[in-house]
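Lab notebook, bench 4. Still working through the backlog of constructs that have no structural model yet. Next entry is a single chain of 67 residues. Request: give me the structure tokens for it.
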Amino acid sequence: PPAVVITAGFDLMRDEGEAYAERLAEAGVKTLYKEFSTEGHGFMAADATKSVRAANAEIAAMFKTLI
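Model written out:
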């Protein structure tokens, strides 16, 4: 199945997430990858700031391209 991989720029696991997305794509998996470079770990669970709402909208649009 296709995959959506999201990372945050200020997350200790960012590099691993990016590498995971690359490996999926190399294996032939349709993969959409996005790094939100100004966000930190867990940003999607944070209060609904303008940047979080924008990120959620962008992520939702990514998922819509897969269905």
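Notes after review: Residues 3-64 form one domain. The chain has one domain: 3-64. Flag for follow-up if needed.
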